[in-house]
Amino acid sequence: MNAPMRFAAMILAMTAGSAARAQTVTVGLITKTDTNPFFVKMKEGADKAAKANGAKLMSAAGKFDGDNATQMTAIENMVTAGAKAILITPSDTKAIVPAIKKARAAGVLVIALDTPTEPQDATDALFATDNFKAGVLIGEWAKAAMKGKPARIATLDLAPGITVGKLRHDGFLKGFGIQEGDPSIACSQDTGGDQAKGQTAMENCLQRAPDINLVYTINEPAAAGAYQALRAAGKAKDVIIVSVDGGCTGVRNIKNGTLGATSQQYPLKMASLGVEAGVEYAKTGKKASGYTDTGVTLITDKPQSGVDSKDSKFGLENCWGK
């Protein structure tokens, strides 16, 4: 090959390389925090899916559960950086909507993971557990496990204004066969899904109603905190705890008997599907839309008649976190 031809080939290769780089799709992932094992697993799923699809992943997280300001800033930064799609687990399901609207107006596909916005159609699509169903499952199990014994219930909830918390709470009540305000609900406290706050909330409930015998918790960290309070009060063996998550720590707590039942969800699947949808939109213009159910399974080693469940062995094979 003579010099002019070599030079032309070099220019062609450089142009092709530049074009390839220019076509790399950027997808953003914004989680509530970067410490909760659920969101750690979600990021892991997004990372793997991005690499498999030749995409670049930008990630950000709130400093705490409920940190709307950091999430809004992350959306703005990702839009500026050229992200074609943003996946978000909204901390404040209402307050984040204006930032999402701006991103969508700029041509960015926005998909909610795990937690729907208010209204739900503020995002293009939702990939999530059916959180109401997750609550129903543990409610049904708890009702059966009580064997007709009068219930004195503590609900350890998330926080006001977060749809995932309300859906799980309402689902539990539905599954147990009661409504809000039922006299069997002895105490309700917010925990932010945090273990330390869950322990404090349980301590407060025990002071108010020492005869509590059933505890609904928003997630497994809150459940772990509740158990610590119950154990310290010498009541751990007398109280049933149910929860939602299906993390490996929670499933081990099913196995050792400190947690009665949990509804397992699948964060890796949510994120993987979200990244794939983002890449498809960038390449074809096809938008994901509506709600995609990423599945939920009741995990317990104490199965109850009429309630579908899997045991802790299945739970450990499909769990997330450490």
TrEMBL record:
Pfam family, any one: Peripla_BP_4
Record domain Periplasmic binding protein: where: 27-287
Alphabetically ordered keywords of this record: Signal
Location(s) in or outside the cell: Cell envelope
Principal place of residence: other
CDD domains, per the entry: PBP1_ABC_sugar_binding-like (cd19973)
Signal peptide from the UniProt entry: 1-22
Similarity comment: family membership: Belongs to the bacterial solute-binding protein 2 family.
Protein name listed in UniProt: Sugar ABC transporter substrate-binding protein
